Amino acid sequence: MRFAELERALRANEDRWGAVLANPFMGITVLDKDQYFIMTNSAFQTMVGYTEEELKKITPLDITPASERETNQALFSELQQGKRQHFELIKRLRRKDGQLIWIQLYVFRIADRAETGQHTFGMVFDITEKMQAQDALQAAHAELGRSAHVSRMGAMTASIAHEMNQPLAAVVGFGSAGLRWLEQTPPAIDRARECLRNIVRAGQSAADVLESVRAMFKSKKLANVPIDLNQLIEEALTLVQGAVKKHDIAVRIELDRAIMPVAGNRIQLQQVLFNLVINAIEAMESVADRTLLIKSEREDSGEVRISVEDSGTGIEPQHIDKIFGSFFTTKVEGMGMGLSICRSIVESHGGRLWASPGRSRGAVFQFTLPTRLSQSE
After folding, report:
1. Looking at the structure, do residues 51 and 80 belong to the same domain, yes or no?
2. Hey, CA dihedral for 145, 147, 153, 156, is it positive or negative?
3. The pTM of the whole model exceeds 0.85
4. In a domain? residue 141
5. d(CA 224, CA 81)
6. What gap in Å lies between CA 111 and CA 130, rounded to an integer?
7. Which residues constitute the domain of residue 8?
8. pLDDT tens digit string along 353-369?
9. Do residues 361 and 311 lie in contact, with contact meaning Cβ atoms separated by under 8 Å?
10. What is the pLDDT of residues 106-130, one digit of tens each?
C-alpha cells in the first residue's frame, strides 16, 4: 500500500512536470555545470529554431549577441559560485536563421544529487512583439516630440516676425513722411526732424524686441523696473502717428495721472500696448467714423487698468473666447500671434487681459496690472 501511494505521487509529479514542459508559451531549459543545454522543451526549441539535439551541443552564450555575453557570463558565474540563487534578465537571443529575438529570462540554481556541482534551471518568455511595440511607441513619441519642436519653432518665428514688423513698419512710415517734408519747397525741416526722431524711437523699439528675444534664448532674465504706464501709452501713440493720420482716426486719451507705477519689463509691456493700439486701428479700416479711446485708471484693488477701445466692426460672439489662442486670427494676412503674446506677457506680470464688446460698437481690450504698492501689501 505504501509503495502504491508513492507510485501515484510519482506519476502525479511526472504529469505536472510534463504539463509544464508541454506548455506552448514558456520555454524551459536546464544547463549543466559547464552551461551546456541538457534539456529543453519544444516551446524553447521553437523560439530559437534549433532541435533538442542541436541545443545539447551549444551554450546560451553561443546564441547570445557578443555585446551581451560578458553580462550573461558574469551572472552565470555568480550563480555557480553561490553568490546568488537566481537572476532575472531581459536580453536577446540569435535564432538559428540569424534573426534576433527578445526574451525575458528567469534563472534558478538547483541542486544536482547525481553529479558534483549545480544545474541551472531557466524559464524563458518570448517578448519580441512587446519590445517591438515599445520601440514603435518610442518612435512615435520621438516623432511627436519633433513635431512639437517644429510647432514651437514655428510659433516663435511667427512671434518674432510679428513683433519686428510693427516697429519696422513705423520706420518705413516715418521715413516716407520725412522724405515728403524734405521734398517740399521750401523743405519743412522741423517736420522732417520730428520724423527722424520718431524713426529713432521705432528703431530703438525694434532693438528692444531683438534684445528680448536674445535674452529668451540665453535664459537671461529681463530686468523688472518701475514703469509709468501713462508714458508708455504716449510712446505707443507716437509710434502709430502715421497710421492714425492715414486712416483719419480721432484719438481720445483719458489718463489718470495719479496711478502708481507698475513693476515689470518695459519692452514687453510696450509691445502689449503697441499691439492693442495697432489692432484697434486695423479694426476700424472698414468703417467711416473712426474713434480710438485709450484710458488708464486706478482700480479699487489698487491695480491699474488700461483700456483700448475702438469704433470698428467689433468681435463676433463666437470668437470672443478664441481670439487669444495661438494662430487664431480673423485677418486675411494675420498670423494670430499678437493677442496670444499680449496675454502671456500680461499674465507673466501678474495681470489679466480680456476683451468685450464696445459700449456702442467696436471692441474694448482691457488689462490690469498690480502696482508696486499693491504687490508689497
Report:
1. yes
2. negative
3. no
4. no
5. 67
6. 34
7. 2-126
8. 998 888 778 889 999 99
9. yes
10. 888 876 555 555 788 888 888 888 8
